[in-house]
Amino acid sequence: MHSITEENYLKAIYTLQGNGDGLVSTSDLAKALGVQPASVTDMVKKIVKKKLITYLKMKGVRLTEKGKLAAIAIIRKHRLWECFLVNKLGFKWDEVHEVAEQLEHVQSEQLIARLDEFLGFPVADPHGDPIPDANGVFSEPPSFPLATLSAGGKGKFVGVIDHSPAFLTYLDKIGLALGDLIKVKMVEEFDKSLTILLKNEKSIMVSFKVANNLLVS
Amino acid sequence: MHSITEENYLKAIYTLQGNGDGLVSTSDLAKALGVQPASVTDMVKKIVKKKLITYLKMKGVRLTEKGKLAAIAIIRKHRLWECFLVNKLGFKWDEVHEVAEQLEHVQSEQLIARLDEFLGFPVADPHGDPIPDANGVFSEPPSFPLATLSAGGKGKFVGVIDHSPAFLTYLDKIGLALGDLIKVKMVEEFDKSLTILLKNEKSIMVSFKVANNLLVS
DNA sequence: TATATTATTTAGACTTGTCTAAATATAATG
DNA sequence: CATTATATTTAGACAAGTCTAAATAATATA
Ligand SMILES: [Mn+2]
Ligand SMILES: [Mn+2]
Ligand SMILES: [Mn+2]
Ligand SMILES: [Mn+2]
């Protein structure tokens, strides 16, 4: 149906587009895909012909409804594969992304349907990212960065914003895992760093930067 | 490392080459890959540069040791994925080949090692085809076509030669499954068809063509 | 052996996806 | 407003992989 390259363009546009339906610039897309802006301009013209995106010259691109559904389908596959790798094969959460980038392009409706069932219809991947259903519908629980809480505030750690292996292994190291209940003990005025309390009574200190990349609900 | 196309060429050459180290002709390869002979000639020259095959103009190609190992690695992946699809996801043995053709090209040593472990280090795929180990070594149990047995002969059904969905679903229909013990009750002189006895006392008749595609040991 | 048939390679072209260098449009600055 | 800097597109090229049509080599046949 769509080439792997096309799928990667759609996915990149989807994530850059965010919730808003804003235009995505050629150069942002180029940066995200690791290609030159000129290559993006060429490719974009081809994808427009398939009615997956609209393109305003010198302004940027935007997914059509058809393109958005295609992008979500790929994200669904990516996240289901990440669940498989972590929950069934014993991968760590910082090791799965690259492999899932390949697996997400395997074409088989049946495969994904059965994988979903095999995994017990998970609603979030190992990073807490929501998994859309087969119709592309997300049932996203509202979440916000830990950094927005003040002293005394509580939340459950449900996801990360930064997905880099560096950040993920850091969280492993300080013993913070998805699902943990967090209570903010203190917020340092000077650098906005937080002292947080986990349910195992352990108290740890995290920088503002870290707290800003932890999603709680 | 190698492109998907290159991998498919290596795999096709390996299976056409068989046990013997005979040369594989351009046109046989073209037929197997579903491309024109002229395309094969072009592609072959590129693969030669990577020292994966040797090529004698007007004669054919042959895998180098390096090429043979590469081909076996892909076959290993293909068969492990087929095990996964059947044993874990509940696919039927006639439904897995196409999906495995895609999954076999996913690049990750770790993925295959962990999948192998997850599956319990299987030695054969759902069609009875042997799975080489990580070093490319097969521990193939000797087998032969059921048709070579005469009346009174016994064997265990361990594999198929014909892998077509049509043949596989036919076997399902007559109730013949991998691992079944088979006793040859009678061989019809006229058309060489066999009457065979399964361990559940059921007696069934199979044509010579079918018996020739059933491997027993 | 000469001729017809089949197998294989060469030549030239096309598609996909990418690149660099140059041209053009937009935004920022004085 | 004129100039400079940045963003974007166009032009021309390239590699991978394929194709068709034509040329050449090998095989079969008379
Ligand atoms: Mn990921
Ligand atoms: Mn993820
Ligand atoms: Mn197969
Ligand atoms: Mn098989």
From TrEMBL, chains A, B:
Localisation per UniProt entry: Cytoplasm
SUPFAM superfamilies xref list: Iron-dependent repressor protein, dimerization domain (SSF47979), Winged helix' DNA-binding domain (SSF46785)
Predominant subcellular localization, coarse grouping: cytoplasm
Molecular-function GO terms, alphabetical: DNA binding; DNA-binding transcription factor activity; protein dimerization activity; transition metal ion binding
GO cellular component terms given for this protein: cytoplasm
Domain HTH dtxR-type: 1-64
Keywords: Activator, Cytoplasm, DNA-binding, Manganese, Repressor, Transcription, Transcription regulation
A Pfam family assignment: Fe_dep_repr_C
The keyword Repressor appears for this protein: yes
Family: Belongs to the DtxR/MntR family.
Purpose: In the presence of manganese, represses expression of mntH and mntS. Up-regulates expression of mntP.
Assembly and oligomerization: Homodimer.
Protein name as it appears in the record: Transcriptional regulator MntR
Organism, as annotated: Chitinophaga cymbidii
Origin organism lineage: Bacteria, Pseudomonadati, Bacteroidota, Chitinophagia, Chitinophagales
